[in-house]
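In this section we turn from sequence analysis to structure. A common task in structural bioinformatics is to predict how a protein folds when a small molecule is present, because the ligand can shape the pocket around it. The inputs are simple: the amino acid sequence and a SMILES string for the ligand, here zinc ion. Study the lines below before reading on.
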Amino acid sequence: MATGGGEDQTGVEDWALPSEVEVLESIYLDELQVLKGKSRSVPWEISITLHPATAEDQDSQYVCFTLVLSVPLQYPNEIPKIAIQNPRGLSDEQIQKISQTLQCIAEAQLGTPVLYELIEKGKEILTDNNIPHGQCVICLYGFQENEAFTKTPCYHYFHSRCLASYTEHMEKEISIQKKERIQHLTAVPKEDIEVQCPVCREPLVYDLATLQAAPLPQQSMVWKIGRGTFCTESLLSKRWNKQESSSLNHLSYIKSFRKSHTSE
Ligand SMILES: [Zn+2]
Ligand SMILES: [Zn+2]
């Protein structure tokens, strides 16, 4: 049992942390990072990046965070320090709530091993909140439960149909631009021939047919009007065609998209 190095007055034999961590390592394997203190008086730091339980389907994981537990000398008679790092898709409010919930669990279980429970609770909360925080920058509406939205590799979120409409438009713009440039024998910069994320301009990876097949967003007025008359997209494309400038500015698309439907 004695692991050497930690000759504290509490006695190495009652130190349950190493065996608790061993169990965690056998459950979480490489996902679990353990920074062991050089002596027993140095807190161990255990960290694990948590995702919602979505049967390993990473494309439908919209939120995550890294749970960092600093385990003090007197654990389990003293609670671990809980930190939430690198949160994605979560609001400040949600992060605070997760932190409070985990803190309560740790306090309620004072005196007994609690690390496994904290990790599992973190996962459970993410599974229940697997909807990105914020709004779709294309239609400016928030994400509702059961709505079809898409996560880009750059971790930005859009309603799938909004993104379909955007990429479709951008593809047309790009091909027009390409033809014009070829006619004028000007070189086309690389960034002008790929569809980019409307938020950060990273190149987008997408499957247009899948995006187009997604259900319409529920709340968005843009799509409500579209649903009523069923001509949103053709209306929009008429509007786009009217614009003389064939600038590839993605923001001009978004502006016209919003302007055309939010004034009513
Ligand atoms: Zn949208
Ligand atoms: Zn992005």
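The chain has eight helices and six strands. As an exercise, try to locate the residues that line the zinc ion site and compare them with your own expectations.
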